[in-house]
What does this fold into?
Amino acid sequence: MAEARPCSIADALAIVGEKYSLLVLREVFFGVRRFEAMVRNIGAPRDILAARLRRLVEAGVLEKVAYSRRPLRHEYRPTAAGLELQGVLHLLRQWGDRHLTGTPPVVFDHACGAPLEAVVTCASCGRPVEPGSQTAHFQVEGWGMGGRRPADETAEAQSSPSQAVLG
It folds into this structure.
């Protein structure tokens, strides 16, 4: 089997790249923290939902916190790492609103009072990230835009950094 490209996107998808994992995060961001309510709102089979919650806790995206001792019951809260995924969900929601539905099922207002329109911006200059506005610099030896370089080209490629303009 060929070696796969090292990729943080693939690593993230291993944790949150499944439908029910993202829907769990949606519910947690709506303030739904308890298993029974998640089952009802998501419509996932109980065993699958339990497995997704376990995986999100193991990965440090959610924390499981007891809210009742007798009987023992837990709720799920986002960790700092989990909270960082909120923007990703807003971007997915906006894409779905634009391309998959006539009327958005939920809209959000920002704290400023305006309708929320999430945009990815550069932390340095504050400008939006748009197609063609970024350049990739591959950090893993031997990999570039075309994939893995043949061994005889690797030494030559190492003398100049691998770059790619996305978009």
Q: What stands out?
A: The chain has a mean pLDDT of 89. The first strand starts at residue 62 and ends at 69. The beta strands are 62-69, 72-78, 134-137, 143-144, 147-148, 163-166.
